Amino acid sequence: MGRKLRLLRKKEELTIEELAEKLDLSSKIISNYENGKNKMTIDTIIKIDRNMVFEDKSLEELVQIFILDIF
After folding, report:
1. Domain of residue 47, CATH code
2. pLDDT tens column, 2-55
3. Which positions ≥6 away from 30 have C-beta within 8 Å?
4. Which of 1, 22, 24, 26 has the smallest set of CB atoms within 10 Å of its CB?
């Protein structure tokens, strides 16, 4: 999950801090997601969709990208 988030973030040319600001999360939380220290929640995936962070991805696509690592 973390690797996928990092790849999408870098594709959008966002820093950890910029992504954290868009999602109203701390940069530490984003870093922990990317490093596998924390698992991303469904709420965070929904925030990514609602804030159109990765505009080319629908909520369904985001769930498919991240969900397998949650369960």
Report:
1. 1.10.260.40
2. 899 999 999 999 999 999 999 999 999 999 999 999 988 899 999 999 999 998
3. 5, 9, 16, 19, 20, 23
4. 24
Tracing tokens 């080319």 back to the chain, one arrives at 56
Distance of alpha carbon 71 from alpha carbon 7, whole angstroms: 21
Give the pLDDT of residue 1: 79
Number of folded domains that form the chain: 1
Q: Which two tokens stand for residue 23?
A: 């999602």
Model's pTM, two decimal places?
0.85
Residue 36 contacts residue 1 (beta carbons within 8 Å): yes
pLDDT tops 60 at residue 69: no
Any residues with CB less than 8 A from the CB of 48 and at least 6 apart, and which?
23, 54, 62
Domain holding 65, by residue range, is 2-70
